[in-house]
Design a protein that fits this description.
With 159 residues, the chain is mainly α. It contains one helix and no strands.
Amino acid sequence: MQLTYVLIGAIVILILVIVFLAVSLSGVRKDMAEANRSSEEVRRDIEETRRDISEIRKENAQTLSSGLSEISRTLSDTTMQQDRRMEYLRATMENRLNALQNDNAIQMEKIRVTVDEKLQNTLDERLSNSFKQVRESLDRVYRGIGEMQGLAQDVGDLR
C-alpha cells in the first residue's frame, strides 16, 4: 500500500511537474510570441526609419541641388554684372583718356604757338639790332669815305 501511495505521490508529482512545465511552456510560448511580435515591430520600425532616412536623403539632395543651382545662377548673374561694370569702366576710362589726350594736344599746340611767337620776336629783335649795327657801321664807313674824299680833294686842290 505504501508503494501505491508512493506511486500515486510520484504520479501526482509527475502530473504537477507536467502541469507546471505545461504552464511554463505556455508562458514561454506567450513570451516567444510576444518577442516575435516585438521583433516584427522592431523590423517594421527599422524599415520605416530606413524609408524616412531615404526620403530625407532625397529631400536633402533636392534641396542641395536646387541650392547649388541658385548659387550657380547668382554667380553667373554676378559675373555678368561685373563684366558689364568692367566694360562701362573701360569705356569711361577710354573716353577720359581720349579727352585728356585731346586736351594735351590743344595745350601743346598753344605752347608751340607761344614758343614760336617768342622765338620770332627774339629773332626779329636780334636781326633788327644786327641790321641797325650794320647800318650804323656803314654810315660811319660812308662818312669816313666822304671825309677821305674831301681830304683827297683838298690834297688835290693843294697840289
